[in-house]
UniProtKB/TrEMBL annotation:
It comes from Enterocloster bolteae. Pfam families: Gln-synt_C, Gln-synt_C-ter, GSIII_N. Keywords: Ligase. This is Glutamine synthetase. InterPro entries: Gln-synt_C, Gln_synt_N, Gln_synth/guanido_kin_cat_dom, Gln_synth_cat_dom, Gln_synth_gly_rich_site, GS_Type-3, GSIII_N. One of its GO terms (molecular function) is glutamine synthetase activity.
Length: 704
């Protein structure tokens, strides 16, 4: 059948992957490039021209006319500048060329991207540098076919101006230290240890025509006003429900686009909130996973437009229903197949696993503030701690089996057994018995062990996963180093590693919590344990520049102090800019659309009262009168709140930049926005729907 989709043939067809390189490159060049990709060896510049020529020919054969260095600046999205393959015309003709120099290095304007003071406006030179460990790919869209080359982005002085460069540095750090751990246990076969990641991407879909009638969605990605419809998510009928045809057709096209680009899209389903969905890939190396997640987000948005929809990646596009996150599933895997986070059937006997686990627990406890900061953004402030996502308190869920092993070690000094899962019997004869896992799952935990990996559930749906994984890699590298430094010198390794595991777990056990992370009791208990409860992005940012953080990142060459300070400044600026846009959008919508609509409604009420009374003095117009009084009262509240919002927004805009300005936006503008929203949402439930100037929540989340 010609219409049968052959995924095997389609997968990776637009990727300059290993199979293509092996086929098109001379053996000697292929081997040198492969050594860099697999072993982390320094790239041999002499092969660049050969690779560039092969890459260009492959791309042109598939219709490409342009190439771009595809990079990830501190904007949180990708950036690109397109250059065609044509060379200078001669005799009225051009030839298509692409050199090794053009492959390896690009030169965008570094002053036009966020740099947090690392680059001044007059200091424009910056470089993009080819990352050969993430394969080039072809993007097909209305522009045509473009060869996209993943690159790092740095300043003229070598400072990282992007998300990828620190990630690659952190991968080097954790690889070096993880190998030391493996060597302690006699593993001489593994040459590299790399983080593996799978990012579960949540998103909303709404009808595009309705989306275009909401200025708040257009400008900010979320609704700034909106009353809840009679039905929300309380029936729990959307989660894993049957996928509607319009959505299914969209998902089908998304999968095709992603598979062609080598993105291993695996799982798709309806999420908890109406109009909310999820896409999850198969796990892969963290560098490629980060790039692929950017491709996923871009593809979700692009394909939505083709289907007459808009894709919302904001963490909280609708108040009153669940927001969207991006669960970051992280593990460490050696090139010999060793998963450092595999406990085996008897984890109490798996000393290597227990050492790795103890180091990770220590790392998360010591650097909980950094891990929390890595998941901070403006949208996530609306999601974390709202009984739909993890709380803002970092804790680790291990489950009954591992918690029991740790309790044995800490209380008696020995772990003698591991709880087993047993057999699940349904009581139905025709259904087979199932082997149960040794522990349940906990969806309220921000950092949960799920069998052979940790799931960091705090990350926001619109965020790059580069920063959380950079932090994870680095803090674990530090813990591994401290363990290896001590154990490599031990005269009695078995005794030393046993004591180290026991002492480390005892010292950092406070971070382990297997209960309900949504409960108020946990907030109080976490405070008693001394765990930080960092409720907002503005409160989280200072973690980047503490002495502890600077020492950590400089020790492993991941960030310099200047780079950390610049990122701190960029995040404060991003927060202020985002809240400023939201506040001014609210002001614009309220003054130009909502107030005129309410005035029109009150005028109709007044006219109705006058008309009825004019015909019949005895007629009961109490309903109209009460509505008029209530509506007029709320209208006055809007006017007062609007004036206050304008006042504090102008005050914040005039404040000194950086942290000072962000604090004004957080402490004064955000409450003023909430004060304006309250009467508007009440009026939406009163004013004639025909007069209300924008689609309602019901229109948006149930009519798609």
């Amino acid at each position: 059948m010609s219409d049968v989709l052959n995924v095997s043939e389609m997968f990776g067809k637009n990727v300059f992957n290993d199979a293509v390189m092996r086929d098109r490159l001379p053996k000697s060049v292929y081997k040198k490039l492969k050594k860099t990709i697999e072993d982390g060896a320094e790239l041999d510049p002499s092969i660049a021209d050969v690779v560039a020529h092969a890459m260009k020919d492959w791309a042109i054969e598939r219709g490409a006319t342009h190439y771009t260095h595809w990079f990830q600046p501190l904007t949180g999205v990708t950036a690109e500048k397109h250059d065609s393959f044509i060379s200078a015309p001669s005799d009225g003709k051009v030839i298509m060329e692409f050199s090794g120099k053009e492959l390896i290095k690009g030169e965008p304007d570094a002053s036009s991207f966020p740099s947090g003071g690392l680059r001044a406006t007059f200091e424009a030179r910056g470089y993009t540098v080819w990352d050969c460990t993430s394969p080039a790919f072809l993007r097909e869209d209305a522009i045509g076919v473009t060869l996209c080359i993943p690159t790092s982005f740095c300043s003229y002085k070598g400072e990282a101006l992007d998300k990828k460069t620190p990630l690659l540095r952190s991968m080097q750090a954790v690889n070096e230290q993880a190998l030391r751990i493996l060597r302690l246990f006699g593993n001489t076969t593994a040459k590299r240890v790399a983080p593996s990641v799978g990012a579960e991407q949540e998103y909303f879909l709404v009808d595009r025509e309705k989306y275009l009638q909401r200025k708040d969605l257009i400008y900010t990605g979320r609704t700034l006003f909106g009353a809840m419809p009679p039905k929300g998510q309380e029936l729990e009928d959307h989660y894993f429900g049957a996928i509607r045809e319009r959505i299914g057709s969209y998902m089908n096209d998304v999968n095709k686009e992603l598979w062609k680009l080598g993105v291993p899209a695996k799982t798709q389903h309806n999420e908890v909130a109406p109009a909310q969905h999820e896409l999850a890939p198969i796990y892969e190396g963290v560098n490629q996973a980060v790039d692929h997640n950017q491709i996923v987000m871009e593809t979700l948005k692009k394909v939505a437009g083709r289907h007459g929809m808009a894709c919302l990646l904001h963490e909280k596009p609708f108040a009153g229903v669940n927001g969207s996150g991006k669960h970051d599933n992280w593990s460490l895997t050696g090139d010999d197949g060793t998963n450092l986070l595999n406990p085996g059937d008897t984890p109490h006997e798996n000393i290597q696993f227990l050492l790795v686990l103890a180091c990770i627990i220590k790392a998360v406890d010591i650097h909980a503030d950094l891990l929390r900061e890595s998941a901070s953004d403006v949208g996530n402030d609306h999601r974390l701690g709202a009984n739909e996502a993890p709380p803002a308190i970092i804790s680790i869920f291990l489950g009954e089996q591992l918690e029991d092993v740790i309790d044995q070690l800490c209380s008696t000094g020995e772990a003698t057994h591991s709880k087993q899962g047993g057999t699940l019997k349904t009581g139905v004869d025709i259904l087979p018995d199932l082997d149960k896992d040794a522990t349940d799952r906990n969806r309220t935990s921000p950092f949960a062990f799920t069998g052979n990996k940790f799931e960091f559930r705090m990350v926001g749906s619109s965020d790059s996963i580069a920063s959380p994984n950079t932090v994870l890699n680095t803090i674990v590298a530090e813990a591994f180093k401290e363990a290896a430094d001590m154990l490599e010198k031990a005269e009695d390794f078995d005794m030393a590693v046993h004591d180290f595991i026991k002492e480390t777990l005892a010292a950092h056990k406070r971070i382990i919590f297997n209960g309900n992370g949504y409960s108020d009791e946990w907030v109080a208990e976490a405070e008693r344990r001394g765990l930080p409860n960092i409720r907002s992005m503005v409160d989280a940012i200072p973690a980047l520049t503490t002495d502890k953080a600077v020492k950590l990142f400089e020790a492993f060459g991941v960030f310099t102090k200047a780079e950390l300070e610049s990122r701190s400044e960029v995040e404060y600026e991003n927060y202020s800019k985002a809240i400023n846009i939201e506040a001014r959008t609210m002001y614009d919508m309220a003054s130009k659309s909502i107030i005129p609509a309410v005035i029109k409604y009150t005028t109709q009420l007044a006219s109705s009262i006058a008309a009825v009374k004019g015909v019949c003095q005895e007629a009961d117009v109490s309903t109209q009168t009460e509505l008029l009084i209530e509506t007029s009262k709320l209208l006055a509240e809007i006017k007062t709140a609007l004036a206050r919002l304008l006042e504090v927004t102008e005050k914040a805009a005039a404040a000194e930049g950086g942290k000072v300005q962000a604090l004004v936006y957080h402490s004064q503008v955000v409450p003023a926005m909430e004060a304006l929203r309250a009467p508007v949402d009440q009026l939406e439930m009163i004013v004639d729907k025909e007069l209300w100037p924008m689609p309602s929540y019901g229109d948006l989340i149930f009519e798609v």
